[in-house]
Amino acid sequence: MTTSRSRAARRLTVLSSATLLLAACSGAGAASTSNNAADPAAQTAEAPDEVTPGGTLRFAVGSDQGCVDPAQVGSNDTIYSVRHLVDSLTDQDPETGEIVPWLAESWEVSDDASSYTFTLREGATFSDGAPVDAEAVKANLDRLTELGARGTLARGYLAGYEGTEAVDERTVTVSFDAPNAQFLQATSTHTLGLLSPESAAQTDDERCASVIGSGPFVLDSYTPNASITLDKRADYDWGSSLWQHEGAAYLDRLEFSVVPESGVRLGAVQSGEVDVIGNIASQDELALSGSDVQLLPRSNPGIPFGLYLNHEVPLLSDPAVREAISHAINREEITGAVYTSFALPATSSLSSTTPLYADQSPLLSHDPAAAEQVLQEAGFTKGDDGIYERDGERAAFEILWFNNAATNAPTLELIQQQLAAVGIEVTLSEGQVADWGTRIAEGDYQANWGNLTRADADILRTSYSSEGANSYRLPASDLDQVLADQAAAGDPTERADLAAQAQEGVVAGYHSVPVVELTTVLAAGPTVYGVAYDASSRVQLFDAWIGQ
């Protein structure tokens, strides 16, 4: 397939109009509210007719994952910056889900979806001067299969990978040992963004310190837990077919600073010390109401925020305990008390903006009485301190969490209270953001609070198949086959049915406890324009600029 650059460029989601946020755009005006988490009360500024290029955009985030290799990071705070270092073979339209050209100008998929042949556009280079050619694509995909513990997403996208053949300089064929219908969407993600062969050949730790990509910005400096600074590539001219202009980015420089305290970030954007901040909490939204600071929200597709349970922990291996935990949690109360007005309670094991989402809300009811009944039927009795126990084992577990969102701590404190009300004891353990991937991959936790973003239902296989990374230590079951089948199904109707079965299997088995859909909300100064969200609700700043 091929897609006209001029046609596809009219569909980028750009947050620049007074009337709205997520938009299928032509020029600077916004026109649509599709994919929003709620009826938006977004505060957005109307863009001037003339773009003002140049300048530095200062962006404050709450955390740093300790790495600048896009394939090794999963925290939005870090993805916001490193996404701008790498281009992808394809891009995904945030409004329609359509896969469109980027570094690949066209592609062909075999009838059984087991091989993909991409034709690369001419002229793209990495910032070290190396060409973006077939050999570079091969070098990247080959090394992604060898990533360490932080490469869970990449390994899932490349499950069954047989190899990549450089047919000629501009033609590359990627082959799998079985049908792999999800792979085309995977090529649009930051995880499969391309690095220079020189970077691809380095160790995982070396790439965490510095990478060379072909993106519109290059890494100027990185200080872990402090800042990431990017400079514009003046010779860049191979952007996504969704972007609003050709050539180089408007901004000269992007400065991302790590500011853990939500209130400090809020004060910085209000005073003009920074231009954009992430991780807006409900109290921040209230404080900004009626001000000239813009609120820019979008609901993230993928796995909702929730409790992800280690099935090797004896207590949590019991389906009755997992069911009781789910019944005890009041999703509506948590969403209303902690999150912005744009957030929604989880209604499935996928967020509602994910392609092939299927509503499972009847299985996610809040029913404290049912929670206690399930425990009692499983042989638990309530102790003098109000906590259930069975054969000397208390209904008690620890939740590992990371401070990469302002809502995490208050959410978990409320969950702790809700579970205590039905006789389940929870302790909270804060981990280091940089250790997130390793601890989850190694099973060094009992329950984890988190989410995963991807605009494709196959994120379920990445998360819940016992035949993959299996971070949650699920036993083999019929769910594995359903997850594998949906990844392979080439027929859209068949895949939608299988994806719905997979969602029901995850929720009905209480393999995790989805709680709230992540809604990304940024706050931007009154003269910031063109900030965009991609299909995975990650920030795209290529078209961004700062007015007078």
Number of helices: 17
Give the % helix. Answer: 25-40%
Strand order, main sheet: write it out.
9-10-11-2-12-22-13
- Overall form: globular
Question: Which ranges are low-confidence, i.e. pLDDT below 50, for 5 or more consecutive residues?
Answer: 1-40
Please state the structural category.
Answer: alpha+beta
Portion of residues in beta strands equals 15-25%
Biggest sheet layout: 7 strands, mixed
For the termini, the CA-CA separation is 42 Å
Radius of gyration: 23 Å
Average predicted local confidence, pLDDT: 90
State the total count of DSSP E strands: 26
What labels describe this entry?
548 residues; alpha+beta; five-stranded mixed β-sheet; disordered N terminus
Describe the fold and architecture.
- This protein is an alpha+beta fold and 548 residues long.
- Helix content is 26%, strand content 22%.
- The protein is built from 17 helices and 26 strands.
- The strands form seven sheets. Strands 9-10-11-2-12-22-13 form a seven-stranded mixed β-sheet, with helices on both faces.
- It is globular.
